[in-house]
Amino acid sequence: MPMNLFTKAFLPGAALLFIGSAVHAQSSCTASFTYSITGMTINVVSTSTGVTPNTSYTWSWGDSQSGSGQSTSYTYAAPGTYSVCLIIYELSTFCADSACATVTIGSSGIADFSKTLLTMNVSPNPSNSQAVIGYSSTAEGEVLLEAYDMLGNKVAVLEKESKPAGSYEARFDTQGLPEGIYFVKLRVNGREAVTKLTVLH
Questions:
Q1: How would DSSP label each residue in 115-133?
Q2: What is the domain range of residue 49?
Q3: How far is CA 178 from each of CA 53, 175, 182, rounded to the nearest angstrom?
Q4: Reported pTM
Q5: Among 58, 73, 43, 52, residue whose Cα is nearest residue 12
Q6: Stretch among 112-116, 118-122, 144-148, 176-180 having the lowest mean pLDDT
Q7: Which residue has the higher pLDDT, 113 or 188?
Q8: How many domains does the chain have?
Q9: Distance separating alpha carbons of residues 172 and 86, to the nearest angstrom
Q10: Minimal CA–CA distance to 160: which of 180, 148, 144?
Q11: Pair 111, 44: CB distance under 8 Å
Q12: What CATH number has the domain bearing residue 35?
């Protein structure tokens, strides 16, 4: 019998997103996107894999505003550096993932296309003893990988060290955790990505 739960996803610069759902086996999905900038407007298109027509797309623009849709655009009110994040959620397959990119809009509206992209996935998910967190970053920096419960309490620090750009794996012992929903958060150079982990014993 599925357990009815309310889960939350952490979006940088946006309000918490609460989703009512039932826990089922999770399939694999990976969030990714491309973008272009014209003046002060950013245009984004999801290139995520493992999605279905029922997948929801939520965008955080890094200035406390958010949007939705597989492709959309947003016009910033002021120049600056912003962390743009995409979180995808598929209700029927109980799959969620996120990806972020950093964009800089100058005073003349010229964009700096140097960006940090973070990706992350968890396997197996649900987990009953140990989960493997695979993650990658396109930039060198201080890596902080942590796990939180649904109330926002930190339950584990999985990695905290400086690493070059690349792909890595970390192991998360879930055997002693109560059943439920947890969130694994990756932070590199102030950019964040969050993915959801279900623990079932």
A1: ---EEEEEESSSBSSEEEE
A2: 4-199
A3: 33, 8, 10
A4: 0.49
A5: 58
A6: 112-116
A7: 188
A8: 1
A9: 24
A10: 144
A11: no
A12: 2.60.40.10
